[in-house]
Design brief:
Elements: H1 2-12, H2 18-36, H3 44-49, H4 63-76, H5 85-100, H6 104-107, E1 118-121, E2 128-131
Antiparallel strand pairs: 1-2
Helix pairs in contact: 4-5
């Protein structure tokens, strides 16, 4: 059954990379193994649909680049937001994405109830800091 899903997915959508199939496969494989008690490799579809299995470099944002992004967001950005609170929310999402390494799409599902803010005082300096 699950292999039929992958055939359907490759026929219905523009799937060009083996890595796309493997991503779905990882999510569904546990269910398949539980019910069929065997594994099927997603690479079976590689030859059938002539999928590319080359690796793509995905450059990472280093700390200096991230500081530049935040500087642009707060200082040089000329875009206006309907509510300026949204500028703070975008900055919060940027910081959460940087600290957790999460994908932006995963962070969009976060609500205010998921975030805890704490006001902490540094024991050495006495400075107050807002902490997530």
């Amino acid at each position: 059954m699950i292999i039929n899903f992958f055939h359907w997915m490759c026929n219905k959508y523009t799937v060009l990379k083996v890595s796309s199939v493997i991503t779905y496969w990882r999510q569904l494989s546990q269910v398949y193994i539980k019910y069929k008690e065997r594994r099927i490799s997603p690479l079976v579809l590689k030859e059938v649909y002539e999928l590319d299995d080359s690796k793509t470099d995905k450059p990472l944002l280093d700390a200096d680049d991230f500081i530049e992004v935040l500087h642009c967001h707060w200082v040089t950005d000329t875009n206006s937001f309907p509510y300026e609170r949204q500028r703070v929310q975008v900055a919060t999402l940027l910081l959460l994405a940087a600290v957790t390494g999460s994908r932006p799409g995963a962070l969009l599902g976060i609500t205010y109830g998921d975030i805890d803010l704490f006001v902490l005082r540094d024991k050495r300096t006495g400075e107050i800091a807002l902490t997530l």
